[in-house]
Write a structure and sequence with these properties.
Length: 424
């Protein structure tokens, strides 16, 4: 049986009859929504990606493309619980000063020639287990501090933060939002994710180090340093005891095979049991827009399935042999840069279950959608966070980023594809 036939049989909602005007409306809502996702906002309007996700989802339900009674069926609550819980856990760690304390102990006690690999591996390892966007928020001020103390130009080290945050996050299910989504739909365990994609992340960080060192070698020589105060207030080890215990418990649960949404929720609940911190401060650490974006996307893609649009995508996938790991890597990388990685994964997730080897298909989707984020300065939220967080002291232009981002992306994608083709 062909790929389109298999997928059509696997999605009962595609058999639901819709009027022609509903089918046309579904196509229109999907097209406009993904157009806005690609641009970041609707031209001439103040509508961003989360806003468009809400609008698109409402129209899908209003036009009865997604029946209101069935709307919840399209929303994967495991993904939302995992994402929300990890935001709470990481937010508590951030407020406690956990990341800052560890980074301060390491980064500011180095020799200049050791700073680049240290920044890359600290950022990458943190991003492997926590949401990479938060790690970028934490690392940028410490990189600026360390480079001022050592008399180094900060640009190469800021590029290292952005690229290694994306590379490191490929290693696990909790590294970034698209991996959480893939983890929920694929059935892969946390250990499988690390076992197959951990080596890709590790080798990718080594390559990132070599490429940045080669491209920015002249900017790595130290000048006269400054006497700069610490970037964070003093944090006692007693304050860090509870978050450290919770993190060990959560990561241990992930590796032991406890369902990630449940384990992350337990960790978030334990973090919120406190007598000293106002919980509203923790809630402010949650990216509510991203959660809304996910809910809207579930309904928009559900409407696309019901209107038959995904049927055409199945035919295209069959025609271009997307089951080939190399082709699927390239398509995923291109689509991730066109519409952003989360919408790309949301769209492509319907194809993978009908692949001859869906296990490898899910891993390729996670690898390519994540590593593709390093291609341009707008390729991932992590890149934009670094640019915005550092803009008062350092201007990072499009070419400043691209001269490192493009080779890093091409090399790591090639390595990721070769590794997954070999370990299969």
């Amino acid at each position: 049986m062909s790929l389109p036939a298999l997928l059509l049989a696997a999605v009962p909602s595609l058999a639901s009859p819709l009027a022609e005007w509903q089918v046309a409306a579904g196509y229109a809502v999907f097209t406009v929504s993904y157009f806005v996702f690609a641009l970041g906002k609707l031209p001439g309007m103040k509508i961003d990606r989360p806003g468009m996700a809400i609008i698109g989802a409402v129209f899908m339900v209003a036009f009865r493309i997604v029946p209101a009674a069935d709307a919840l069926r399209f929303i994967d609550f495991g993904t939302l619980v995992l994402l929300f819980s990890m935001m709470l856990v990481v937010g508590c760690l951030h407020l406690t000063g956990f990341f800052g304390w560890i980074t301060e102990q390491i980064v500011t006690r180095l020799r200049p020639r050791h700073l680049l690999p240290t920044v890359i591996f600290i950022t990458g390892v943190f991003s492997a287990f926590f949401v990479n966007d938060i790690i970028c928020l934490v690392m940028v001020p410490f990189v600026l501090l360390a480079t001022r103390r050592m008399g180094l130009k900060p640009l190469p080290y800021l590029l290292a933060v952005a690229t290694s945050a994306n590379i490191g996050s490929v290693a696990s299910m909790t590294g970034n939002p698209q991996n959480m989504l893939i983890g929920s739909f694929s059935g892969l365990t946390y250990r499988e994710f690390i076992r197959h994609l951990g080596p890709v992340a590790l080798l990718g960080m080594v390559l990132d180090w070599l490429i940045i060192h080669f491209m920015c070698g002249n900017d790595l020589e130290p000048e006269e340093g400054e006497d700069v105060a610490a970037a964070t207030p003093h944090v006692s080890t007693r304050e860090l005891r509870k978050p450290a215990i919770v993190i060990v418990l959560v990561l241990g649960g992930f590796i032991a095979g406890v369902p990630p949404p449940m384990m992350a929720a337990i960790g978030a609940a334990l973090m919120l049991i406190t007598r000293t911190r106002n919980p509203r401060l923790v809630y402010d650490e949650v990216d509510w827009g991203l959660l809304v974006f996910f809910v809207g996307l579930f309904l928009i893609v559900g409407g696309a399935e019901n209107s038959g649009l995904t049927g055409y995508l199945f035919e295209i996938a069959d025609r271009f042999n997307l089951q080939n790991a190399g082709i699927f890597t390239a398509v995923t990388a291109v689509l991730s840069n066109l519409v952003s990685n989360v919408p790309a994964v949301m769209l492509l997730k319907a194809l993978v279950p009908a692949f001859h080897d869906p296990h490898t298909g899910w891993l390729v989707l996670a690898m390519a959608s994540t590593l593709a984020g390093n291609l341009t300065i707008t390729g991932s939220v992590a890149n934009l966070i670094v640019v915005e967080r550092a803009h008062d002291e350092v201007h990072i232009g499009f070419w400043d980023y691209s001269r490192v981002g493009i080779p890093v992306t091409l090399v790591t994608l090639a390595v990721g594809w070769a590794w997954l083709a070999w370990v299969r």
